[in-house]
Specification:
elongated; single chain; mainly alpha; 53% helix; two-stranded antiparallel ribbon
Length: 107
C-alpha cells in the first residue's frame, strides 16, 4: 500500500461516525448493508451517513453496488488488510507481532 493511500484511509477513519460505519460494514461481511440499514443500526441521520459513506468510498475503504433502487455498501477487505499490513510492517523489530493462533481477516 502506498503512503498516500494510507494517509487517505487513516484520515477517513479518524472520525467517530465513519469508524462506526466502517466497523458495521466489516461485521456485515461480503453481504454488505444498504444506507437505510446502516442509518437505522447506527442511529445516524441519512444525510450525515451519505456524507460519511462518500468519504469512505473516496478513501477506497468501501465499495458500492447498485441493486435496483438501492445501493449496497461493503467494506473493502483488501484495502483494510493492506492498511493493517502497512501499519504492522515494521513492528516488533521485524518479528511476528500477533499472538500464536491469531489470524488475519480472510473475508
Amino acid at each position: 500500500m502506498q503512503e498516500a493511500q494510507v494517509i487517505r484511509s487513516m484520515a477517513a477513519l479518524a472520525h467517530e461516525a465513519r469508524l462506526r460505519v466502517f466497523r458495521a460494514l466489516v461485521v456485515a461481511g461480503p453481504e454488505g448493508l444498504t444506507p437505510s440499514a446502516l442509518a437505522e443500526q447506527l442511529g445516524i441521520a441519512p444525510n450525515a451517513l451519505s456524507f460519511h459513506l462518500k468519504e469512505l468510498f473516496h478513501a477506497e475503504l468501501v465499495s458500492q453496488e447498485r441493486q435496483g433502487r438501492n445501493v449496497l455498501y461493503r467494506a473493502a477487505f483488501p484495502a483494510m488488510n493492506g492498511l493493517l499490513a502497512y501499519m504492522t510492517e515494521n513492528c516488533c523489530q521485524g518479528t511476528a507481532c500477533t499472538p500464536a493462533g491469531a489470524a488475519s481477516c480472510h473475508c
